[in-house]
Model the fold of this input.
Amino acid sequence: MGNMMKIKQLQLQNYGRFENLTVDFAPTENRVSNVTVIVGNNGAGKSQILQALATGLSWFVNGIRNEMSGFEIDNKLIKNNTDEANIIINFDFDANNFINQAGLLEITRWNTNKVRDGKNGKFPSYTKELNKVIKSFRNKNSHISDLSLPLIVFYPVERSIIGNSQADILSSQFNRFDAYHACVDSAGIDFYDFFKWFRQQEDIENEIKANVILTESEYIERLNTLIAEKNEIENIYNSMKDENSFYSKLVNTELGSSLNNLMEKLERLTEINQEKIDYLNSVKHISTRESIAVETLLRVKKSIEEFTGFRNPRIRRQGTPTMIVEKDGEELDVNQLSQGEKSLLALVGDIARRLAILNPSLDDPLHGEGVVMIDEVDLHLHPKWQHDLIDKLVKTFPKVQFILTTHSPLIVSDRQDILVYSLDNGELQQMPNVYGEDANTLLNDIFDVPARTPEIDKAFNDIRRAISHKELESAESQIN
Done:
């Protein structure tokens, strides 16, 4: 099956500060990646574009989840001096996608609009194609219990507030549609569900280990029994080894053979236990819900490690259970990390969690499809982490369409094939390829930031002018 769903285009009419805006998203004819990045000054409207997408997508999410309506456009987002706002989203459904079997075109669109109280609207409202999409997904999901569903999630800037990294509440098995919980809420997103889910997956893993792997006490008990047998045989062997009778030689031979067998048992006991541990840590056995849980947890842990450099993320259960990681050889509670470290860990973990819940039948659930929108993706991140962030997102979640906003020049120079827009005064301009450009050039050309502060820049120009006019004393004075 081809792409499940990609957002092809967004049109905004009288929405926020936009009178009429059209945004085409990657992948496009000249951009093969799934990444679109929008840059612009504060107040340019970057967040409003993502909010509009989230509002439009809420009708799809709520529809396939429980046949409920989506979010209304906030009256405050109707452009000043106009009576109606309109959001139109065009979707690209692959020609081989089962959705098209419901009679849809490859390009499908729907809209949501809002009219001020007491006013007449002029924009047509069309939801027929949306209803077909929802019906097709629900029908297919009724017949295929492990049907892969597309991820839809919007991370606003409020995601930076992680109220709790504890995992002290036990929950029942997660429902497939729990992956859509608070996924397009512009008011903020809570990462608490990620920590609860992580603990649950670890509980499943620990239960399997308890049933398969010897506990430390069991292992020591068996080991001590074998060692006692070995010592007893060695004592008999040592007491008789100097006797020359045929009987003693026969006994010595048997004792030696028994001793060798015991040593082999000792080695095999250790090997068998390690093999069971390796079996659980392998990614080759996906036959039951439990093994899938172990597999998924391993992949989520690996993604966190690759993004952050932290090792062995896990739940510590003494006292109030909480997530801990190893940083530079030191064990730390997640709450001891910086805001940027916590935000990135939770963001990556939450994307992975939602994909895992929505794609139970995939060999690698992180290869599930969907749309992820992140406002200010560079939020709280050190430049070292910004530098290859998009590259890691694409490699970890290769089939997800990312729509991002940023203030960082390091983000937009990360990959060669991303689609970059500059937003200024309500107008959107596609930027040329800036892959590999230095930060100063990007700040100047893309973010319209001068290389120096205006005062320093003027001082340099005055010095140059004095030198060019051979006013050397003046130039020297200004340099000093």
